[in-house]
Amino acid sequence: MPKLGAEPIRRAALVKATIETVGEAGSLEVTVAQIARRAGMSSALAHHYFGSKEQIFLAAMRSILTLYGAEVRGALSTATTAESRLRAIVSGSFAPGSFRRETISAWLNFYVLAQTLPEAHRLLRVYQRRLRSNLRHELRPLVGARAEAVARGLGALIDGVYIRAALADGAPDRAYALKIVTEYLDRELEVRG
Amino acid sequence: MPKLGAEPIRRAALVKATIETVGEAGSLEVTVAQIARRAGMSSALAHHYFGSKEQIFLAAMRSILTLYGAEVRGALSTATTAESRLRAIVSGSFAPGSFRRETISAWLNFYVLAQTLPEAHRLLRVYQRRLRSNLRHELRPLVGARAEAVARGLGALIDGVYIRAALADGAPDRAYALKIVTEYLDRELEVRG
DNA sequence: GTTTTTGTTGATTGACGAGTCAATAAACTT
DNA sequence: AAGTTTATTGACTCGTCAATCAACAAAAAC
């Protein structure tokens, strides 16, 4: 029953299934067969399109990072002032598309993958650098020389809130996560003297 | 060559080897044989003392959390005022005994383990609750009603700084990690009006 | 000095899983 | 209609690894 032009559809289905499977299992120790079954195909086909399990994981990770980037860009698109752009980056980081149970769990696992797989490591570094650079850029006019430090702190705090959400039971509380990070930002933006 | 009273020595050696092996591999996908070899014994003996790989991991995780707790308590022992105690908890969190490359990497992996293993989950929750409760207690006289929120923020930030250190290349920079968290604390402790 | 307890391992079992391959089938090409 | 390309899978290979077991060794107990 070969429909032509199946490749992109199959690849997308596998990426989606990978995130779901890893997220649900809470572990990278999932089999290609499990992923393939969830994506509605044989494991042989998964290997046919991706070549190896490693490549499947990398594609899934790229997908997560791409989605994340898109959500931040989306949030940024309506913001004009430095402060509103800053807040857009933060709230974009917790957009409902990314801040989901399985996505967070998959994210955590990909973090671990980056310890082993150089390409995964590279991907994560690119994301981190871009985030920090964006934050720094908007922070400069607001906190001057402290921009670098605040950008790093914000980045770390976002990661921390993420992984804590991975461990919490029940659905991740978006408003609550946002509140923690926003309050940090508020403190830093307060005029002091 | 059976030396008597070997059990506690063997167990300790296995726990140490587990942390090192997981830390170096950057993954939980290490074999019992690898761990046992590093600890200088056969894999059969590792199974003899721990029963299963799962139990070995749990013992290693308990060890990490115990060490962490001890370092925080140690730092606390010399502090008297609320603020100095608060700072002791923070700097204790980055004590050189805990804030090591392999320990951090192992920590991250155990975080993942907590997604799968209920007992690991429980252990992590106990640690988180205790940390938050300690922080809240010292924060109360300093920031009043904000104590709860600040305690949560600090906890998340510490975790975030930890996992970022796991990804950084080179030795983890203790002073730098401490600086990020300390500055957060400084902002929160500033008198505002 | 024999029995029991504690320590220890090599060899084996049994399961599982990544990746390959040969075969089949439907579409497109000429 | 014959040939080519794309899609698809069941069956198989080969390696790996957790866990078990039988056997051996030394100390303790009796």
Q: How would you concisely characterize the structure shown here?
A:
The structure is a homodimer of 193-residue chains. Chain A has 193 residues and is an all-alpha fold.
CATH architect. name of the domain at 58-189 in chain A: Orthogonal Bundle
Radius of gyration of chain A (CA) equals: 19 Å
For the termini of chain A, the CA-CA separation is 72 Å
Low-confidence stretches of chain A: none
- Mean pLDDT level of chain A: 94
* Strand percentage of chain A: under 5%
Note the total helix count of chain A.
Answer: 9
The class by helix and strand makeup of chain A works out as: mainly alpha
Oligomeric assembly: homodimer
Shape category of chain A: elongated
Walk me through this protein's architecture.
- Chains A, B: Pathway: Amine and polyamine biosynthesis; betaine biosynthesis via choline pathway [regulation].
- Chains A, B: Repressor involved in the biosynthesis of the osmoprotectant glycine betaine. It represses transcription of the choline transporter BetT and the genes of BetAB involved in the synthesis of glycine betaine.
- Chains A, B: InterPro entries: BetI_C, Homeodomain-like_sf, HTH-type_TetR-like_transc_reg, HTH_TetR, Tet_transcr_reg_TetR-rel_C_sf, Tscrpt_rep_BetI.
- Chains A, B: This is HTH-type transcriptional regulator BetI.
- The structure is a homodimer of 193-residue chains.
- Chain A has 193 residues and is an all-alpha fold.
- Chain A has a domain of 132 residues: Tetracycline Repressor, domain 2.
- Chain A has nine helices and no strands.
- In chain A, helix 1 packs across helix 2, helix 2 crosses helix 3 and helix 6 crosses helix 7.
- Chain A is elongated.
- Chains A and B meet through helix 6, helix 7, helix 8 and helix 9 of A and helix 6, helix 7, helix 8 and helix 9 of B.
- The structure holds a DNA duplex (30 and 30 nucleotides).
